[in-house]
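Fold in tokens:
===
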Amino acid sequence: MPAKAFVLIETEVGRTKDVVAALQAQKVKEIKSVDLVTGPYDVIAVVEHDDFNAVGSLVTERIHPIPGIKRTVTCLSIRVS
């Protein structure tokens, strides 16, 4: 079962649309959705990958380098059986 995470993204002022466009342009199959939101964060990306380590690598290698991202918080989804 794949690991799922919600990546909460805070952007630099005026860069939110650029960040969303960059995330969508990557066409990374593990990024399931990218949404603009209100509140303390500007964007939420839903990510699914093989395991939690792969999620971490995706966030640090593909999301963090995007210009305009100020900081991220990754919330791992925990499934209760």
Q: What stands out?
A: The first helix runs from residue 16 to 26. Strands lie at 3-11, 31-36, 43-49, 69-76. The first strand starts at residue 3 and ends at 11.
